[in-house]
Design a protein that fits this description.
Blueprint (H helix, E strand, L loop, with lengths): L4 E5 L5 H18 L13 H9 L3 E6 L2 E9 L20 E9 L8 H15 L4 E7 L3 H9 L3 E6 L11 E7 L1
Parallel strand pairs: 4-5
Antiparallel strand pairs: 1-2, 2-3, 3-4, 5-7, 6-7
Helix pairs in contact: 1-2
Length: 177
């Protein structure tokens, strides 16, 4: 991988780098198969990172001065989560939800996604959370493999209301802590 990977809470100076990472990921997906259905200029965009930072929920993974990954961790479920077959009770004060986990295309298959998830678990444990939940577009096989490898268990297939974007089904995953 080269260099030390550091993950920390984002600050305002990180927002341009996260916005650029989102653009680079969308360009890569357009050229190599867009499993998550992300669209440059629509989602994810710098404004999503800004909202995450304002909520004190945006984290960046950096090697040197370069932003190589990012994740948003909240206690806010997506609307369709109520239809999942979860492993724990729905007390979101004690459950983290992973949103917008992204790794820069230059750093794919370097373990950054895994490190972001390990970091999320550490943050969740420090706050005495019981689990971490996330969703992934159905047939986003690379992401599903990552989550399964990291110990996440399938908790159902649901609609999250994104049919208009051609994204009718999402796989739900949960990891007990």
């Amino acid at each position: 991988m080269g260099g030390d990977l550091r993950i920390r809470k984002a600050v305002e100076a990180d927002l341009d780098g996260v916005g650029k990472l989102y653009e680079d990921v969308c360009d890569y997906l357009d050229a190599h198969g867009n499993y998550p259905g992300w669209k440059k200029g629509i989602y994810p965009v710098r404004r999503d990172a800004e909202r995450g930072m304002m909520a004190n929920a945006l984290y960046v993974a950096r090697i040197g001065e370069r932003t190589v990954g990012t994740v948003i961790l909240t206690h806010e479920p997506e609307d369709g989560y109520g239809n999942g077959k979860w492993l724990t009770e729905d007390d979101y004060r004690r459950i983290y939800v992973v949103h917008t986990l992204a790794v820069h295309p230059d750093f794919l298959k370097c373990g950054i996604g895994t490190e972001l998830l390990v970091f999320a678990e550490r943050v969740a444990r420090e706050e005495q959370c019981v689990s971490i939940r996330l969703d992934v577009v159905k047939d986003n096989i690379p992401a599903e493999r990552l989550y399964q490898k990291c110990g996440y268990q399938w908790a159902g297939t649901v609609s999250l209301g994104y049919e208009a974007y051609g994204l009718p089904w999402y796989q739900l995953y949960e990891k007990l802590l």
